[in-house]
Amino acid sequence: MLIMRLLLLLAVLAIGGSVILWQLTGNPRYKAWAWKAFRASVVVLFVFLALFAIERVLAPMV
Q1: No. of H helices and E strands in the chain?
Q2: Alpha-carbon distance 46 to 37, whole Å?
Q3: Region 10-15 average pLDDT
């Protein structure tokens, strides 16, 4: 759980920093990077949730 919180914090900082840099500079590269980081964060979140769901289903069988 600690790893998931750390990854979430890093994702929020990266996305927020990119959006702020995009607003300050107007460079669309930062906006694109923020969008890619957001999509990667959502994928990682779904993988963690899927692992928790699989654990819940398979744990009673053991």
Answers
A1: 2, 0
A2: 14
A3: 95
Is 48 in contact with 4 (CB distance < 8 Å)?
yes
Extract the tokens encoding 24: 């300050």
The label of the residue with tokens 């790893």 reads 3
- The pair of structure tokens assigned to 8 is 């979430």
Q: What is the pTM of this model?
A: 0.80
Which amino acid does the sequence have at 15? I
CA–CA separation, 35 and 18 (whole Å): 9
4/48 Cα distance (integer angstroms): 8
Mean pLDDT, range 31-46, rounded to an integer: 95
Token pair for 11: 């994702």
